[in-house]
Amino acid sequence: MTSEARRLDQAAEAEALGRSLLDLAARIRNDTSRREPAPSPTERPAKPAVADPTTLARTVASLQGLRQRRLRHFGLALAGEAAWDLLLSLYEARLARRELSFYQLCATGGAYPATIRRWLAVLAGLGLIEVEGEGGDPVAERPRLTRKGEIAMTECLSGLSLPA
């Protein structure tokens, strides 16, 4: 990747982050809901209104595959949706009843670790995730969806029909 292409990717990423931070500020200002604690990894996922967990897991896999195809064809500047990719990865882990470390999330997140860390802070600020083991040691950090995040993802993906 040329330095000009890298700068364009960084500019697109910074612009998306700026828009997201403005949206976050507006949501925090208007949000009156309380944060709910994250469910334990062994607790059953929230029951979707329309789709079953197997269908939801296939939908998540299809969306992740679509992102990889977009990345291959259009590059990072046009395919980058770090927050959504993080939510999909955390939701997929939740459906499989497993946890992801920060580094595992970086491997699936399609962005630089510093970018993923910023987006995790944004998502935590919205009450959609929590990071267990925070304290500066990325090896010990375990991001996961809160109940609010799980319900939002379930409602968003329920009824969405994508080819597997």
TrEMBL record:
Residue stretches of biased makeup (Basic and acidic residues): 28-37
Query: What is the superkingdom listed in this entry's lineage?
Result: Bacteria
- Stretches the record annotates as Disordered: 28-52
The protein in question is named: HTH marR-type domain-containing protein
Q: Which organism is it from?
A: Novosphingobium piscinae
